[in-house]
Design brief:
Elements (H helix, E strand, L loop, with lengths): L1 H36 L2 H4 L10 H23 L2 H26 L7 H18 L4 H30 L3 H19 L26 E2 L3 E2 H19 L1 H11 L1 H6 L4 H25 L18 H11 L4 H25 L4 H14 L2 H7 L17
Antiparallel strand pairs: 1-2
Length: 387
């Protein structure tokens, strides 16, 4: 019986991975169609489709192959490309782990953006305001960012557990509070760079920045991988992780079994905020495109909190899946720049590809219908339980 159960589990996992791979393939096909129909030079060739089919088909192939070739080249085509992909992926992995952890407890943490903002605020401030020895300074700045994110997420958990406030509404509102708080802080003497009136903070000290290995690899990526291992251990090897998964699967049953559901909710949201705060730390202390830390500003963390939701969904809230999804999206970000410069393809196409991938992953029945050889896995929720 045990062997049959294990075989069924592995078959289900195989179908899940097949659906994910099929979703990526379908997204690339849809992206190719968009490239063709949006290029006037290519589309005009289709006037000769029946008289000289080689012209439109050749033009389409040249357009698509050059764009996707540039995408691959910019993502994994060289050591510099790999380093850029890792740099883009690191904050996505951290925030995706945070959102995914909330999902495993049945919580919709839509506030990853605000938590990342507070993580970047605390890490950046400690990075430029303190004078400490190299290793100690980095550790202090990282811990400060983690605590800030955990507090911002813990507020949501407290309100959810003690007052019943819905975490979606609370986290969405707190995103705006965090953004406006950052805007105000950047106008205060404590954060405003001396001699400047525009909202930008001083550059952090070198002692607080993530070091770069081999002149290319950002240590922050290794920190993101370590965070993934920690989340895996927490969920699969710890008592707290079992409680998180039990509450996510059925909070009423977990409470009947003696688990303190409110406490698990608060702890989970605090840990989720901590991981999202680590994403903000990556932006505040990690190297920018010029291998120098980017100063704190309004748009420093970009849209990492919202991108993290798609990463967590694509990774199905599992640490390994989240790492792979973060690398995929990091590669799309890094390769999108090369696709724009080499193939003259809009940078927004990489964003469209991300959206299409998540769309297909969220609709396994559609993927199964378009690719009949792939059977859709049994219906499972991406939030809570063992999704």
């Amino acid at each position: 019986m045990a062997e049959a159960a294990n075989a069924a589990v592995w078959r289900e996992r195989g179908r899940t991975w097949a659906i994910t791979a099929g979703s990526i393939v379908l997204a690339l096909i849809a992206g190719a169609v968009l490239m063709v129909v949006s290029d006037p030079d290519v589309i005009t060739q289709y006037a000769y489709l029946f008289t000289a089919p080689g012209l439109p088909l050749g033009a389409s192939w040249a357009k698509v192959s050059s764009a996707y070739g540039a995408l691959v080249l910019g993502a994994v085509g060289s050591p510099n490309a790999l380093a850029a992909t890792a740099w883009q992926a690191a904050p996505l992995i951290c925030a995706g782990l945070g959102v995914g952890l909330g999902f495993r407890a049945g919580l919709f943490n839509i506030g990853a953006q605000g938590q990342a903002i507070w993580g970047s605020i605390a890490a950046a401030y400690l990075g430029f305001a303190l004078q400490l020895p190299p290793v100690i300074h980095l550790i202090v700045a990282v811990i400060g960012g983690l605590i800030a994110g955990a507090i911002w997420g813990g507020i949501v958990g407290f309100l959810k557990a003690r007052t019943g406030a819905h975490e979606v509404i609370v986290t969405i509102m707190l995103n705006y509070v965090a953004l406006q708080a950052l805007s105000w802080l950047l106008s205060t003497p404590a954060f405003l760079r001396p001699g400047r009136v525009d909202p930008i903070a001083p550059v952090i000290h070198d002692t607080a920045a993530f070091p770069i290995l081999f002149r290319q690899l950002n240590v922050g990526f290794l920190v993101a991988l370590a965070a993934a291992v920690a989340v895996w251990w927490l969920l699969d090897r710890s008592t707290l992780g079992f409680a998180i998964r039990a509450v996510g699967a059925n909070p009423a049953a977990a409470g009947t079994a003696g688990m303190n559901v409110p406490n698990v909710t608060m702890i989970t949201m605090a840990l989720s905020g901590l991981l999202c705060g680590l994403a903000g730390v990556q932006y505040a202390l990690g190297p920018g495109a010029d291998l120098v830390a980017t100063p704190l500003s309004i748009g420093l963390v970009g849209t990492v909190g919202f991108d993290a939701i798609t990463v967590a969904l694509l990774g199905r809230s599992k640490p390994l899946g989240t790492v792979l999804a973060g690398l995929l999206f990091g590669g799309l970000h890094a390769g999108g720049l090369a696709m724009q410069s080499i193939a003259q393809t809009p940078l927004t196409l990489s964003t469209v590809l991300q959206a299409l991938i998540v769309l297909f992953v969220a609709a396994p029945a559609l993927v199964g219908a378009l690719l009949p050889k792939i059977k859709a896995p049994a219906a499972t929720s991406l939030v809570g339980g063992e999704a």
